[in-house]
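Quick entry, no commentary yet.
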Amino acid sequence: MLVELVSANPTGEVTVASARNGAYGDSVARLVEFAGHDVVREYYFNDAGGQVDKFGASCAPGGAASRCRGRYPGEVVDALAAVLDLDPDASVEEWTAAAVKPIFDRIRASLERLRIHVDIWFSERELHASGAVDRAIGKARAAGHVYERDGATWLATSQFGDDKDRVLIKSDGSPAYFAADLAYIEHKFARGHDRLIYILGADTTGTSRA
């Protein structure tokens, strides 16, 4: 059994809501272990996409921030911006990599203090870099579950009981969250897990990950 828990976006430290999700997820994992199953606890680190790039750019004093729409406010961002040693004109990718690492370390430390041990910290960025997202979409397309509409690429999840179909590739050509999630699910099963348990956050709506 694989239990995915917390998986909060790395645009800040763990909040009370995220920590509650971790405590609940760890309790579920312990119950499954008590029932005699082998359990792996996993945190899906969303270190790719617009949100995390915006976070990295928000820490830049100039150049990179001007190339990113909007800015994340707050003490965490300001504190990071004060200590990150990068050229103001460094790329958004460089700022993102520099900003995400200390946040990642703080998230790990917070969960350990709560006695929530995570076995695997899985990077979304690695999914994209390995080509797993494109392969997963191609596999779904070959099976007849992918179609085009309104300039976007869709996965026909309603065929499997979902309340609506989900966007894989947005009309601007960028991958939607569900595209990476599709590849991630396939990756989990390929590792030999028999059942996947998701501990959804209170801010997760719909049934796209249920």
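second:
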Amino acid sequence: MGGARRSLVLVAGTATGQVAQLLWLVASSRTMTGHELGTMLSAQALYLTLQVFVDGGAWLYGARAASSSTVDDRLRGQITYVRLEFAVLGAAGSIAFALLAGGAMPSAVLPYAAALLFFAALNTWEPFGLGRHGPYVAYLALRSITPGIVAWAVLASGSTQAVWAPGVAELATLLTVTLVFALHPLRAVRRALAVREGPRKAIMRVTLCQTAAVSMVAVGTLTLSAAGAAAAAGTLGAGIKVMAGSATLIASGALGFFQSISRQHADGGTGDTSGFARAVTTISWLTIVAATVAALAAPIVAAALLDDRSASTVTTLILVFAAIPAIGFVVALTSPLVARHEEGALLATYVGGFAIVGLGGLLVLAVAGPSAEGMAVALVVADLAMAIHVLPRARLLIGARARGIVLRTTGALGVTVVAAFLPAARPALLLALLAVSTVGLALACLKLVQRAPTDQPIPTAQLA
């Protein structure tokens, strides 16, 4: 199966999950109070961050080893042991956060703490590295479909949804995937306890990249929730659901090239990455179009997802949507660069982004109080800074095209941010941006279909 075909399979599974996520949000916003929804979204943001801490590095490390045919029972046990170590730390940390936050937070977080331990014992990385995507794709889809079914059932019954319901649905999803694909988590735990060691340092190098990326996205929502502004956290969290969903789709598509790029690197050659370069170029235009359409539809999105059309909510959503092209560019490069063992360089990019949004969030609290709009601005600045910082690494894979992608991403982001704060000029600015980006997307798609010659990757020696 070629990289493009693998990408389509992964994107299809992820897209199904993202649609289900939005449908879950529509139902949940009507079966919970604003405070309860904000609490639930904060609990989900915390779980996602910890899930990436447990899985992000170990999953890519294991998939890379599997694609190189270097996995045996001992390595399986070692990888699971590190995952379990991280999961225990994460579960303890999430419970501590929930108890400190108080209110409904413990009820929302505790099921996710249990799910984190269950999740750590599942091996979806090895089948993926060997070209079998079923377990991974099924989990991506079901983790959103299951809570969505619960939320709509509650809405249909006219009842109120408990804040612990999505966490319990996550446990049900993990159990379903385990049974359907015979993943044998207990066997994995026994192997882990038999070895009682693992490649912790090597996994941590990859994990830190992934964790910093998700933490950067989650820190605004968690900060607002901790500051007692659960409703503002819910508004920001809803926008981030859409942004993160777009980023996840892009990351899933890029994973389709992971196996081939990893094998190229293992063979010691640079290889031809022109197919990946064409894909990233097309994606860059697509994300600008998607962000612009989402910004134009922000009032409708606000009403649908949050049942709220206030100016503050619409502005917050537009600002978050503005970051889609920048974060999309970074995540499109993440797994391919990890496949090339470039996680050390990526770490600086993601830690820098986390530092910007974290310090920006503290500044927002000090100057404007718990403001969802302010937190969204901090996120936009961090995403743009990351896109600029990753540019030298991007040239390894997509050549001179990378600079053009960053320039148009910056321009589109600037136009969208201005439109967010100038409602009177908003339609004209966004429609002009949509027209330009649609033409760019059409031309990129035409080149993609025609498989036109593209810039070759720049040898590493030329970047020294």
